[in-house]
Amino acid sequence: MYLEKQGDLAIIKDINPLYFRLYNLLPNGKYVIEEAEKLNLRLGINNVFFEYYKPLNKFTITGRVIYRGKVIEPVPLVKDWAYTFFILNNKDIKLRKYNEIIPRRRSQIHLAIEAGPRLIVDENITEGLNNTFRSSKICIGWDKNQRIMVAATEGKVSLNEFAEQIQDQGFIYALNLDGGGSTSLYYNENGVKLRIIGKSSYGYDKIKFEQNEYGRKVPYMVGIPKFIDK
Q1: Which 3 state secondary structure label does DSSP give 164?
Q2: Which domain does 216 fall in, by range?
């Protein structure tokens, strides 16, 4: 696993898919950057979409999550553009509609995250991506060698602009994760440390989400620990 930087864009390449671990940050949510540093992770990222009701400090997750064969979050992301990033126990990686894999292969799933839209499919940028709404972005996907990659930018870009950036970095498939102020990436490998904290397009973001120097609280983190448990 290693880091490449192109301006505001950070790309983590050559990730072993079975190294990923899911960290539950509920019930009150936590900051990816802060938690990743506390746990001394090699990599930490945010992932699913959610709604947050500040008076009750309550999270509502919209997007299904599976970890080690167990359904962690069952509520679907009810959007035509919703897809699921699957990592199977045999290291296969798939980007499919949720019901194309579930329920017949649930026990074979190491990790599944539902989000969207797809940014890159068969090396091509997905048609119809928004080209006006700009905020920080984060995605997960893979290259021609079936090695997982993660990309994130603090800079404010549209989905189409982000897709163009990551296409140039070798993504042949990519799924958009929860961007904007939720964008969080922590990297600490081989003496290189990086923190990416997203920016939203919403003026009320700090008031609504209680952002601080660590970014925004999120319900789940996907990360890679310093030492891999089998």
Answers
A1: helix
A2: 2-223
Mean pLDDT confidence for 4-25:
96
Mean pLDDT of the chain: 93
For residue 94, the tally of other CB atoms under 10 A from its CB is 17
Amino acid at 92: D
What spatial distance separates the first Cα and last Cα of the chain, rounded to whole Å? 18
Is residue 153 within 8 A of residue 4, CB to CB? The reply is no
pLDDT at 200 exceeding the cut of 80: no
Position 173 in a domain: yes
For the chain, the residue count is 230
- At 56, is the pLDDT very low, low, confident or very high (cuts 50, 70, 90)? confident
User: What are the residue ranges of helices labelled H in 23-111?
Assistant: 32-38, 98-101
Those residues whose C-beta lies under 8 Å from the C-beta of residue 57, and which sit 6 or more positions away, are 28, 29
Report the number of distinct structural domains present in the chain.
1
